[in-house]
Amino acid sequence: MSEGDSVGESIHGKPSTIGSFFTRVGQIYQSWLDKSTPFSIGRWGVTLSLTAIYMIRVYILQGWYIVTYALGIYHLNLFIAFLSPKVDPSMLDEDEGPALPTKQNEEFRPFIRRLPEFKFWHSATKGIVIAMICTFFEAFNVPVFWPILVMYFIMLFCITMKRQIKHMVKYRYLPFTHGKRTYRGKEDTGKPFSVSHLAAAG
């Protein structure tokens, strides 16, 4: 190996090491995210705790209201996407693609969200963490009359939710499903039809 090759490796070795470090950190972070997927209650508990800590910090510091307002708007947009179907029924024709079930005896189809629960939680938590970091920098503490921001947010929330509820009523869907419906036999005895009934019939 020549001297020029060794110099080249020393020059290009440092970026490679830094890149490998961040790649490894990203892999560890993704691994922890994957492990936390089934624990929705625990995940949201952590997020609510971070929200409480952030609100207490803002109350004590008496500032960073514009950051809080932006965080509220961001969370509202996430919530609306969480409540909305992945495919907007208003954009479909009657014979175009799978639609939401509108009758009780219609084939069961689970509600597919535009923003899945896990992505909703992840984005909401990242927003809180970023807002918390902003409270450590005076540049983000823009002077503002906070009651006006509260009034604007309440008005925006009411208008947005009213529009969303009208959309849900118009297309007759609920943004919550609890798994596949349990079907029963023709002679409904109050118990689900099971394999034991087939064995008894045989």
UniProtKB/TrEMBL annotation:
Alphabetized UniProt keyword annotations: Membrane, Transmembrane, Transmembrane helix
Keyword Plastid: no
GO-annotated cellular components: endoplasmic reticulum; Golgi membrane
Membrane topology (UniProt): Multi-pass membrane protein
Localization (cell): Membrane
Transmembrane recorded as keyword: yes
Regions that span the bilayer: 41-60, 66-83, 144-161
Pfam families: Rer1 (PF03248)
GO biological-process terms attached to the record: protein retention in ER lumen; retrograde vesicle-mediated transport, Golgi to endoplasmic reticulum
Homology family: Belongs to the RER1 family.
Cited function: Involved in the retrieval of endoplasmic reticulum membrane proteins from the early Golgi compartment.
Annotated protein name in UniProt: Protein RER1
